[in-house]
Design a protein that fits this description.
Elements (H helix, E strand, L loop, with lengths): L3 E6 L4 H12 L4 E8 L3 H11 L3 E4 L5 H7 L3 E2 L4 H5 L6 E4 L6 H10 L3 E4 L2 H16 L4 E4 L2 H10 L7 E8 L9 H5 L3 H4 L9 H9 L1 H14 L6 E5 L5 E7 L4 E5 L5 H9 L14 H4 L5 E2 L7 H11 L3 H17 L5 H14 L8 H17 L2
Parallel strand pairs: 1-2, 1-5, 2-3, 3-4, 5-6, 6-7, 8-9
Antiparallel strand pairs: 8-10, 9-12, 10-11
Helix pairs in contact: 2-3, 5-6, 6-11, 6-15, 11-14, 15-16, 15-17
Length: 379
């Protein structure tokens, strides 16, 4: 079997570290063509050495000199686009936080690559534009988020007309059982105390507010071509059922796995093949006990209502929702807002926005910049 050439964007973040673990476990299946990260150049250089990567690249020029001292494999930031478009590369795993991944994903798709997509901003900010590229016959996207990977696997080759709805699962985060009063008084420390997943600070706060599920709602609509009314979510604290689809006859098909991102990452990079589950936790149903499900309380957690509105309106509205949330989370971390203040900032920013179509990355960038300014100025 021919080895797949892989580039990992965001190699030193939580998703990137799991991707590196998968690459290390399967040297017979993958060649690491390149690794990219922003500022953790020590770890980036070490990963490059361990994986015998062709190139390691910092996406920020200010860290490039230090990386050059650490690794003889160093490339310059402006060479990254050329690298991912090269004939050596089959799969580009995008786990870059923020807007930096957008032009790289566009370049990879237009070069006919498979994009294993973990970066939420790509489809939330520019989903219409990105999916137009995919549908035009260029490259393809295989989702790496555990929820979207689950739906991707459940749908497989099934006819979309046979699917009644997509059901995303949500752990509920650190505030799942909190009352409205407790949510209003929740400290940063409590909000970051996720009971299941070990993630970065921003993502953990988004999990507590269910804004991560709002972003995934929009992503799911773009990825799988379903309208807002055919997408829903349920709380599932154990994070064993990663998502489900309900068929028109009432049958529900679910994807289950232990909560470990290496499952979705491995499938995203190896698709359509599967990897042997070396060192991955196996499912022990007898030890699981029970699996719990409950409705999302939209009064305590209004994020999904924002997502329904944003994806119904489409255009630049999802980008505005995302940008307003990022600013609001920053303000929460600084102590300027409480948790309900995050939702208030998102709601008010969306209400003030006049959406337009996203026919280019520039349109997405402009909406993002406007929303950040507006959300930062709100009291």
């Amino acid at each position: 079997m021919k080895k797949k050439g892989v580039v990992v964007l965001g190699a030193t973040g939580s998703i990137g570290k799991s991707a590196v673990a998968v690459l290390k476990s399967h040297p017979e299946r993958f060649r690491t063509v390149g690794l990219a990260a922003r500022k953790n150049v020590e770890l980036l250089a070490r990963y490059g050495e361990e994986l015998n990567a062709g190139w390691v690249i910092s996406t920020d020029l200010q860290y490039n000199d230090k990386l050059t001292q650490l690794s003889p494999r160093t490339g310059r930031p402006e060479e990254l686009c050329e690298l991912i478009c090269s004939d050596e590369v089959d799969v580009v795993l995008c786990a870059i936080v923020g807007t930096a991944g957008l032009p790289l994903v566009v370049a990879a798709l237009k070069a006919g690559k498979t994009v294993a997509l973990a970066s939420k901003e790509v489809l939330v900010m520019a989903g219409d534009y990105i999916m137009d590229i995919v549908h035009s016959g260029y490259g393809n996207i295989v989702p790496v988020d555990s929820e979207h990977s689950a739906i991707f696997q459940c749908l497989a080759t099934r006819e979309r007309a046979e699917v009644e709805r997509l059901i995303l699962t949500a752990s509920g985060g650190a505030l799942r059982n909190a009352s409205a009063e407790e949510i209003a008084g929740a400290t940063l420390e409590r909000t970051l105390a996720h009971p299941t997943w070990n993630m970065g600070r921003k993502v953990t706060i988004d999990s507590a507010t269910l804004m991560n599920k709002a972003l995934e709602f929009v992503e799911a609509g773009h990825l799988f071509g379903f309208p807002a009314e055919k997408i829903t979510a349920v709380i599932h604290p154990q994070s064993i059922v990663h998502s489900m689809i309900e068929m028109i006859d009432g049958t529900v098909i679910a994807q289950l796995a232990m909560p470990d991102m290496r499952f979705a990452i491995g499938y995203g990079m190896s698709y359509p093949d599967r990897l042997p589950g070396r060192a991955l936790p196996k499912m022990d149903f007898a030890a699981l006990g029970g699996l719990e499900f409950s409705e999302v309380d939209n009064r305590r957690f209004p994020s999904l209502e924002f997502a329904r509105q944003a994806f119904t309106v489409r255009g630049t509205m999802p980008a505005v929702m995302n940008a307003a949330n990022e600013i609001a989370v920053e303000r929460f971390i600084k102590g300027e807002l409480n948790v309900p203040g995050i939702w208030r900032i998102v709601e008010q920013t969306m209400a003030a926005h006049q959406p337009c179509a996203v026919t280019s990355l520039e349109a997405a960038y402009q909406a993002d910049a406007w929303a950040r300014r507006f959300a930062a100025d709100l009291k």
